[in-house]
Design goal:
Order of helices and strands of chain A: HHHHHHHHHHHHHH
CATH architecture of chain A: Up-down Bundle
CATH topology of chain A: Formate dehydrogenase/DMSO reductase fold
CATH topology of the largest domain in chain B: Alpha-Beta Plaits
Oligomer: heterodimer
Radius of gyration of chain A: 21 Å
Strand content of chain A: under 5%
Number of helices of chain B: 10
Largest sheet of chain B: 4 strands, mixed
Number of helices of chain A: 14
CATH class of chain A: Mainly Alpha
Helix content of chain A: over 70%
Strand content of chain B: 5-15%
Distance between the termini of chain B: 79 Å
Largest interface: A-B, 47 and 49 residues
CATH class of the largest domain in chain B: Alpha Beta
Number of strands of chain A: 0
Number of strands of chain B: 10
Largest sheet of chain A: none
Radius of gyration of chain B: 22 Å
Number of domains of chain B: 2
Number of domains of chain A: 1
Low-confidence stretches of chain A: none
CATH superfamily of chain A: Formate dehydrogenase/DMSO reductase domain
């Protein structure tokens, strides 16, 4: 099946070429980081995780979101998703690979990475995150590849795939729950120290991930003749809308608890994010943009007539993806470290090299996704005679 | 025996004589200094031990000069680099009441307290979150309560820095060597990409000495066994009211501050 990736239009190879160029440029910056250390990033003693870990967190959400297709399709036999399902599983594979990549570029001694296996430490959530992410990668590779192979051979998938699919549904929830536990169990980080963090992560994942998938699929619809089907688009956009409502609701729960209780530790990070803390207002433009984009997307998505109009759906999804990305990819990590343990503020902004290295991982994900989707589409074309 | 082998042995013999007669000049001055030779068994007194090591800070006795003296004693021996940016490495440093005890939410402090500076270092907690989160056991707690680091196992994930509620941990964002003025050959300096922190001078305890900051503190820092009712720290705590940083974090710090 892999040979399907080797033949394609100039546009396909052009896309891969551009992605590989970006990856190559990013790799140059990564060599610079390997040579100099994380000194080339904007990280500091006080804000010791930043852009890399934030992208990791966002991508775990994208990976987990495949379950929003898998669950209705396998548990409720919702056949409208039959064309989309493989796209979702392959996006999950690309997303998990990016997650692992973001971890690797973040650690100070990547050549010692396997110490996590050699000295496995079950009391560390990072150990479990490694287990669930790699497990999810293997599950999706096995399920996705086997199902596609069976489809290509025009036979039903082997019976052992079904239990793995059911396992992958539960597993998808576990990856983002465990990722939330990375943060939610730390005694000194008020913004993260909340029982609802895992629920917030899941709700933001279940809107942003499918939104990204839908946008990419609609892009595919434009550049190829692949059509996920009107019904599938409608249902997925409804799922996205509900998940985004839950996401905003969960955030407002945080706001209530922090400000009605009037506990300084709970209020400080929110104050820092939305109005600035002791004169440090550098995060406020990002967060208010996120807020307006989030609410704006809901205004456009909730009325079903608007939601089902592609000219409104697409910008709404773009707004939703950017809004949730700002919330998770910019605000979440920095606010966990601000104010610092001394109730002071050290400002953090990713540096140019830092963003280029992150871009390398995104390009890597892009390469993986392009190849996998190409294979899926070619197989479909061969089996059905059309996309 | 062929000629080349005989030549080699001759040369080796001459070299051995030359080395034992002379000095190893190429190792530089530092390696020749008597005080820099690796310690031998006779140099060690018996180690001092405890059930749980703890420190009491008599904060009123500190002024800027004494704080600097303690920090210098620690940093110069342990090869702590001075980088001077927000990527700084700190084992022993100081700050005011607000920063030291932020959860006290101080208001209307006495003028003297307002300006007092408090020494800050790793608390060697009984329930250390840094140990709990470390994915490789590179940071671990010893039986005697010392929270330690294995710099050769650390992968530099910095989870411990996120876990520590006291900001006691520093990461080597770059090679520290250029930022160490005089390298102490008795103590290894760290490498790029690992986390480090105060060790309660485990190497001093092993040779029967008190931690270096305690030795430099003119009695303002007390160090002893928290489980021993007759230890200096327990006696001090019996006499004077002392608090710990962020008790709500549940970590049970081992550093007590007499106000």
């Amino acid at each position: 099946m892999i040979e399907k990736a080797l033949k394609g239009s100039p546009r396909y190879f052009g896309t891969l070429f551009v992605l590989l160029v970006v990856l190559g440029i990013g790799a140059g910056f990564y060599l610079y980081q390997l040579n100099q250390g994380l000194v080339i990033t904007g990280l500091s003693r006080d804000v010791s995780w930043g852009f890399y870990i934030a992208q990791f967190t966002y991508m775990v959400g994208v990976a987990a979101s495949a379950v929003m297709l898998v669950l209705p399709y396998y548990f409720h036999h919702y056949k409208a998703f039959s064309k989309m399902i493989i796209m979702g599983e392959f996006l999950a594979i690309a997303a998990v690979i990016m997650c692992l990549g973001f971890i690797v570029i973040d650690i100070g001694q990547p050549q010692r990475m396997l110490n996590v296996l050699l000295n496995s430490t079950p009391n560390s959530v990072l150990f479990w995150d490694m287990v669930v992410l790699n497990g999810y990668l293997i599950l999706n590779v096995v399920i996705g590849w086997t199902s596609l192979m069976a489809y290509w051979k025009r036979v039903s998938p082997p019976t052992w795939v079904k239990p793995l699919v059911y396992l992958s549904v539960v597993w998808a929830f576990s990856i983002h729950t465990v990722t939330a536990f990375l943060y939610a169990g730390l005694p000194g980080r008020h913004y993260w120290l909340t029982a609802i963090l895992a629920a917030r992560f899941l709700s933001s994942a279940f809107c942003s991930g499918p939104a990204l998938l839908l946008l990419l699929t609609l892009l595919l619809k434009r550049v190829t003749s692949f059509d996920p089907g009107r019904e599938a688009i409608k249902t997925l956009s409804t799922i996205i809308t509900y998940a985004m409502c839950v996401n905003v609701f969960f955030f407002l729960l945080e706001v209530f608890t922090a400000f009605y209780s009037n506990m300084p530790g709970h209020m400080d990070p929110l104050v820092f994010l939305f109005s600035g803390y002791e004169g440090h207002t550098y995060m406020t433009p990002f967060m208010w943009t996120a807020a307006f984009l989030g609410i704006g997307s809901l205004v456009m998505l909730i009325p079903y007539k608007w939601r089902y109009t592609p000219e409104i759906l697409v910008p709404a999804l773009v707004m939703l993806v950017i809004g949730t990305w700002l919330d998770k990819g910019m605000g979440l990590i920095v606010a966990g470290f601000t104010p610092n343990p001394f109730e002071r503020v050290t400002e953090y902004m990713p540096t140019g090299p830092e963003m280029m290295i992150a871009l390398m991982i995104y390009a890597l994900g892009g390469v993986v996704l392009t190849i996998l989707w190409k294979i899926a589409l070619e197989v479909r074309k061969e089996v059905e005679g059309t996309l | 025996m062929n000629s080349s082998r005989r030549d080699f042995l001759k040369l080796a013999g001459i070299s051995a004589v030359a080395v034992s007669a002379g000095t190893l000049g190429f190792l530089g001055q530092g390696a020749n200094a008597a005080d820099a030779l690796p310690p031998v068994a006779a140099d060690f007194k018996a180690p001092i031990t405890a059930k749980r090591w703890a420190m009491v800070v008599d904060s009123a006795k500190f002024n800027d000069a004494l704080l600097q003296k303690c920090a210098d004693a620690c940093h110069s021996y342990h090869n702590v680099p001075s980088i001077g940016s927000n990527k700084e490495i700190k084992w022993f440093w100081s700050d005011d009441f607000d920063a030291t005890f932020p959860t006290e939410r101080p208001a209307h402090l006495s003028e003297e307290m307002e300006h007092r500076k408090f020494p800050l270092l790793c608390n060697h907690c009984a329930n250390p979150p840094c140990v709990r989160v470390c994915p490789t056991k590179a940071t671990f707690k010893r039986e005697d309560g010392l929270v330690m680091m294995d710099y050769h196992r650390c992968i530099g994930c910095r989870y411990c820095m996120a876990g520590c509620p006291f900001g006691a941990r520093s990461f080597n964002f770059q090679d520290p060597a250029p930022f160490i003025k005089n390298v102490n050959p008795l103590f290894p300096h760290r490498t790029r990409g690992v986390v480090e922190k105060c060790t309660f001078c485990v190497e001093q305890l092993a040779k029967g000495e008190q931690p270096l900051c305690v030795q430099a503190s003119d009695g303002a820092l007390l160090f002893g066994d928290l489980e021993d009712a007759n230890s200096s720290v327990r006696k001090a705590l019996k006499e004077k009211y002392a608090i710990r940083r962020k008790p709500d974090a549940g970590t049970e710090p081992g550093v007590f501050y007499i106000l």
